[in-house]
UniProtKB/TrEMBL annotation:
Gene3D superfamilies, per database record: N-terminal domain of ligase-like (3.40.50.12780)
Native organism: Methylococcus capsulatus
Gene Ontology MF term list: ligase activity
Record flagged with keyword Heme: no
PANTHER family: BLR5969 PROTEIN
The protein's name: Phenylacetate--CoA ligase family protein
Keyword match Ligase: yes
Record keywords: Ligase
Superkingdom of this protein's organism: Bacteria
Entries under InterPro entries matching the protein: ANL_N_sf (IPR042099)
Length: 498
């Protein structure tokens, strides 16, 4: 999988251009690489050998990709939590890995994920795609401000390490690590940003927006710093992207922003590109085309991915990945809802809808594009609220909060619930965080409720058809910025409660 490229020759990442490395990968057979990784893991990873034996599988009987795709899936309960950590590592040696991260535990007990340098270099290619292809960071002095939480949590340290690898490769990037402390972020920006041609903020979408809004209130003039944004961890709407870009003075969302599809277990699995963002903006403007391709009313995250680094399959509408890591992943069930679209397939689909050059959606063909396959991601299957039989997605609600006249009141964070009242009836309750200094009142709540209802009816056909008319308007509760019960600072926000 990745080890032939970086395990024995880590300087390949430093010495070879992004163009050469991606061309080399695209010339390889991803299926053959996945099969090769399986054969290595079956021979060298004690836990995986035991796992196969428990399922009555002889590794030497798995000779083709057809055999491979019939192997049992691995996941956290059946594999990661069933075998000791060292036995899940190459050679049964945890000490062979020189760094470790921990998952957030949003689906259960936190899990440790070790890795070695060459695994990180493979992921650094995703950052290089963003920083070179979109931000042109090879030609501009860049201050990268890491706003993810630091410590053992995967986001901050992993991001920082990958950026350091780019700097070592020769990119004029200086990395600052204030973490998710706004006061430190503002101090870094105030002292250092004037010395650089551009600045990149990297963090979770709602937190980055909080930084932008709070920074503006504190007197930071974002449009003076050529700000770029890198997000991870959540799906957001194109209205939200446009809003945030407007607040930093950006007129080029495709080239000033990028979202990463990353997990603690698999690293960065894919990344937005200028092409994928332009395509997503086309789908946002054409919901019927989005429903035709993605099969749902909500708009997913759309990334491109390196099939040699991460080999994807689908299982009942959810993603399965194979890829090298300190704990190698073999047909690992991530449980994220999504799907796969080939590069040529996507281009053909767009041509059928008369979307050829995508210039009106912000894409510049002169800058080029990578012929990498696409992955679309809705997030975990359980991040929905069921209401009168309709699955209501946070992404649908978000659009309602990003309308003119509302965006200046709210932070973008909310909690969606459908509690059962004393009479047995359910109500759709939406608790919304206000921006600092904004006071709650009935008029604001009513306008938000009407906007969210309008967007739910437009975007979610289940809601429109299943929910009685009298029950379609949500009960909106407005809470102050940083409310400790619903919007505590310093933790990853969850948009639904059950």
């Amino acid at each position: 999988m990745t080890s032939p490229l970086f395990a024995d020759q880590p300087t390949r990442f430093l010495d070879r251009s992004l163009e050469d490395l991606l061309a080399e990968r695209l010339a390889c057979d991803p299926g053959a690489a996945a099969l090769s990784l399986f054969q290595r893991a079956a021979a060298e990873v004690p836990a995986y050998r035991t796992f196969l034996a428990a399922h009555g599988i002889r590794p030497d009987s798995v000779r083709t990709l057809v055999d491979f795709v019939h192997l049992p899936l691995t996941d956290k309960p059946s594999y990661m939590q069933a075998y000791p950590l060292p036995e899940r590592c190459w050679g049964g040696r945890l000490a062979a890995c020189d760094r470790i991260a921990v998952s957030s535990g949003s689906t259960g007990k936190p899990t440790f994920w070790p890795r070695a340098l060459h695994h990180e270099l493979d992921i650094a290619l995703r950052f290089e795609q963003v920083f070179r292809d979109a931000f042109q960071a090879h030609a501009r002095s860049t201050l990268a401000v890491v706003c993810f939480a630091l410590g053992n949590w995967v986001g901050g340290i992993y991001t920082t390490s990958c950026l350091w690898h780019l700097a070592r490769k020769g990119y004029p990037i200086t990395v600052a690590t204030p973490g998710n402390r706004p006061d430190e972020i503002f101090r870094v920006i105030g002292e250092l940003a004037p010395y650089f041609e551009q600045m990149v903020l990297l963090g979770y979408p709602p937190f980055v927006k909080d930084v932008i809004d709070s920074g503006a209130a504190a007197g930071i003039l974002w449009d003076r710093h050529a700000v770029k944004l890198v997000f991870a961890g959540e799906v957001f709407s194109e209205e939200w992207r446009s809003l945030v870009c407007a607040r930093i003075g950006s007129e080029s969302p495709c080239y000033d922003t990028a979202s990463l599809y990353g997990t603690a277990d698999g690293g960065v699995l894919g990344n937005e590109t200028p092409l994928s963002i332009a395509i997503r903006r086309f789908f946002a403007a054409h919901p019927q085309a989005a429903r035709e391709l993605f099969g749902e009313s909500r708009l997913p995250t759309l990334v491109q991915y390196d099939p040699l680094s991460r080999y994807f399959e689908l299982h009942d509408g959810t993603l399965v990945v194979t890829g090298d890591n300190g704990v190698p992943l073999i047909r690992y069930h991530i449980a994220d809802r999504g799907g796969l679209v080939g590069y040529a397939e996507m281009r053909d689909f767009l041509r059928d809808w008369d979307a050829h050059d995508l210039a009106e959606y912000g894409f510049d063909p002169a800058w080029g594009e990578r012929p990498l396959p696409f992955l679309y991601l809705f997030g975990r299957a359980d991040f929905t609220v069921s209401y009168y039989g309709a699955n209501i997605y946070p992404e649908n609600v978000t659009v309602g909060l990003e309308q003119p006249g509302i965006v200046n009141w709210v932070s973008g964070k909310f909690v969606l619930e459908a509690p059962e009242g004393a009479g047995g009836d359910r109500e759709l309750r939406l608790t919304v965080e206000l921006l600092p200094g904004v006071e709650a009142d009935e008029a604001k709540a009513a306008k938000i409720a009407d906007s969210v209802r309008t967007e739910l009816l437009r975007l979610n056909s289940e809601f429109a058809h299943y929910t009685p008319h009298a029950r379609q308007t949500p009960l909106v509760v407005l809470r102050p910025f940083g409310d400790p019960e619903y919007f505590p600072a310093g933790v990853k926000h969850r948009y639904t409660r059950r």
